[in-house]
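hi!! sorry for the late reply, been swamped w classes. u asked for the two structures so here they r. pasted raw, havent cleaned anything up. first the sequence of the first protein and right below it the tokens
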Amino acid sequence: MVGSAKARLVHSDIPIPRESRSKIARPPGPGAARALRNFMVPTRAPWFLAELERDYPEIAHMRLLGLNRYVLNAPELIVETFTNNAHELIKGPVYDALKPVIGNGLLTSEGPNHLAHRRLAQPAFHRDRVAEYSHSMVELTLAHEQSWSPGRKVDMSSEMTAVTLTIVGRTLFGTDLSEDTGEVGPALRKILHVTSRYVALGPKLWNFPSPARKESAQALATIDDVVNRIIAEHRAAGDNGDMLSLLLAAQADGDQFTDAQVRDEVMTLVLAGHETTAMTLTWAWLLLAQNGTEAQWLREELDAVLAGRPPTMDDIAQLPRTHAVIAEAIRLYSPIWLFGRRMLTDVELGGWQVPAGANVMVSPFAMHRSERWWPDAASFQPTRWIDAAGAFDEHQPGVPRGVWTPFGWGNRMCIGENFAWTEAILVIATLAQNWSPQLAAGAQVQPESAITMRPKGGLPMVLERR
């Protein structure tokens, strides 16, 4: 298993440029020791990037483990880099650290290979197909709700992981994963926690034996067993029209996808297809528990529109407050807290020469919490997303382009954005009608930068009926 992970680590669709220009003027920024000290601590890294956004409002340079990294904090530079210079970028070291886990799937592939994979996956996320999925999203949420009882203490991050994992299994793979969540959820948490270290310290650390690598390999083997079982069941059952059926029927350069390629795509969708939404829902429950007035504001809408019945896709347009709660949860606790790219050629940004091989990074966590763009930025204010007519409007906060980047930016934006919005809104609308979970007494909640933004040690809550 370790050998397979190491082989995936070194794979690249196109040559990776190495920066060779050491003597070049660079923007100001933190020293290497400070950068390393903060990036090594998962509970510090997001706040460190927020400090850089405040102290270096345009662009900051830092040298981290032999790599030059440029943190973009000006909206116009983010747009210029990820839109105008999109053809000069490939995925950076942040994504390299994921390769041993998810391989060369949609998230990590490059060039023509990525385009082929994206074209293949696109139909599975079309609005009409998401509308079909919406029935399963609600049905599976209701089924999970049957396990809830008043007074029960739960880890809400595990609860939301279980819901979203079963939804991904049913909608994209036509598979029932409800019996696997008890195994897969903890394994994913272990992988995400360990992989986050390799994001900070460099993915090549996968090459060195350690207890963390051994634990991660064991967790990965658990998930690989589930993924391989899903694939085998599909091969036996034949085409049923879901995403995995498309993968199994796909042709790549005249040949069918190999088992390894199918595995990589399934693993990518298992991880990326449920983890970010699970964390969005987790943080939404915390914020609602901490802000009673806003929670009541949400439930007034649910009572008026749904009157106790399960929501449908058609109801989403009539649930602007629910939409706003999800948007505000993403703003304050961006599941994708950092994304980056590697420059293929020299590019000038903000008057500075950024050489080929250097890495540019953007922190949605920092940009979404910046007082420069968001009044009372640290406060949970879902009303900031509601326009004068009472409708949800993603442009209502009035921030410049490049500030609000919940699903990335440019030509590599998340293909599942519509799926994620729909799922998060329907899950919250389904459960919040009847439940008002409260933070467990004495719980200390700390955001932690794994691959996604997670609550360190989970989110202990007590289930309470309204």
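now the second protein. again sequence first, tokens right under
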Amino acid sequence: MSLDLDARQRAMLQEMGVTVWAAPQALPAPAPAPAPAAPQRPAARAEAPEPAATSAASPVRRTAPAPEARTAPVATGVSAGGLLLGTPQALYPLADPAATPPELGAAWLIVLESPTPDQPLAGDVGRLLDNMLRAMRLHRHPRAFVTTLTRPAVGLPAEGVEPAAGLQQALAALRPAMVLLLGLAPARALLGSREPLGRLRAGAHRLADGTPAVVSYDPAYLLRAPEAKAAAWADLCHALTLARQAASG
């Protein structure tokens, strides 16, 4: 259905960020092409003599078929092992344990994909992650840990372990009060689910040892879609509530 909008209405919609597409003007119908002239019948030609039949003694040459084209294998950049989970590292090791808010619990573990696994708080993604954790007051917790999922490149040495085994080791060593899974890849890898991110965010998750886990957006995605930051903050508040309930119970 088309809208009959004047110039003022179109200007108002453009100010609101709404793009209005105008219907293309009808082009004049092309003039009919002239009818082709009737072909003239060529004059009779003398028939060429038929070629002599090939004798049985003369060899017949056959053209060899062209070799089939083969497609070179495409390198995917990811080894057959898929994702690997790195060693957890403390984000704020110099935080004063005496100043740690008690409602945060004994420890936190954040799992995400990072473009700088050795420096998870570096770059634009790391700065946004730092801001998110500071808003939760986790910068005052010396036992706030992060572990990153990596996709090892073909031909390069890979560091890390299989995600499920790595998570089990981290849970046994750190005993976190809460695990934050930021992004679809960490959520699927560690929860063993193929659900979309929206359903994973809405669900209540418990890991193998009973530790609660909350799924939210990856900071790299939030840089591309800042309109999702409000929903991500709601996820983080939900995680804080669960940790507070566990600490008080």
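hope this helps!! also noticed smth abt the second:
The helical segments are 7-15, 123-135, 163-174, 184-191, 197-202, 219-224, 229-248.
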